[in-house]
Amino acid sequence: MSRADGPAKRVVVVGGGIIGVSTATHLQRDGASVVLVTEGEPADGASGRSLSWLNSAGARSQPYHALRMAGIDRYRTLFAADPDREWLHFDGGLSWAAAGRRAEVEDRHRHEVAHGYDSHLAEPAEAAERVPGVAPAAIGEVAVHNPGEGWVSLPHLIEHLIGELTRLGGDVVRQAGRASVVAQHGAARGVTTTRGHRFDADAVVVACGADTPAVVAEHGVHIPDRSPLSMLVLTEPARTGMRSVLNTPRVAMRPNPGGTYALDHSWYEDRIVETGDGCTIDESVVKELVAEASAVLAGGEELSAASWKLGRKPIPGDGEPVFGELAELPGCVVAFTHSGATLGLIAGELLSYEILSGARHPMLAAFRPERFRR
């Protein structure tokens, strides 16, 4: 879109994850004057420990499915511009459940077929043929293969977008500390940070992951939050040829740049300990997760952990995304979602449209923050 004549709208975006960086970049593209403010370094929060599976798998509401499919479409456009990028691929996904839960897998497949999602039910031998590198014996009674799915390394994408943002004239303020929205005469008018910064603006975007509800709570806005503790493990480089995203009963995994793999799951959430200085987990849990990943690969490849990151995974209280301007604080726009990777590009595009045009985009109608009004 192109902005109207007149001075550029000043927008401060709070958050160095994919949603914040994408929104800042789209705004700058569209003619705004943008300052991106990050508490630490870009991608050092949830985006730096996301499995970042690009999908709309399973059962979900039609508005959410439509938004996710639009999100995947934007990634395909980015992929087509340079298919040789190491950090963005569309090599499909394969999922299966534990023994005795065949009906659950079949039900998921029916939901996907019902809204036109590319979904194939496959017995173990066929599934292993569809996804080379997976051990047939590891697959449950039946699997779902989604050939149109993909993955992205969000730290690489964030670096790519920040490069564009700065080339277009946007500013990035790193290590600014925790941000607070400044309100004047009942509207958002800028941001201050705990490290002494102040940025005046015509609009503010709060997109700081699991911290988003706390930031807007300072202005009496209630957004329910059920963000759990999570961990992402990166492996050492491996020689296995498995290129798809796998979702299995004990490990979720995807390829990662440099011949490595990214691993996560939920079974160990209660073994992560949160302290005032961050989060910790016993290294035995990391080794157990890596062993689970090794067990689903063909050829006897033994993976080993190179690093792991811990923290909160952003999830709104009802599981659905939260996008849009706050009725209680005009000029303040929130972006809070579990599906940050899949929605990253489309969310930034649509929020930029709303902020600069003043119109509400119909694709965000189901996700407005006012649904939580007490």
Automatic annotation (TrEMBL):
Tell me which InterPro entries the record gives.
Answer: FAD-dep_OxRdtase, FAD/NAD-bd_sf
GO molecular function terms here?
Answer: oxidoreductase activity
Keyword annotations of the record? Oxidoreductase
Keyword Transmembrane helix listed? The answer is: no
One Gene Ontology cellular component annotation held by this UniProt entry: cytoplasm
Q: Where is the FAD dependent oxidoreductase domain?
A: 10-353
Which PANTHER family does this chain map to?
GLYCINE OXIDASE, SARCOSINE DEHYDROGENASE-RELATED
Q: What is this protein called?
A: Glycine/D-amino acid oxidase-like deaminating enzyme
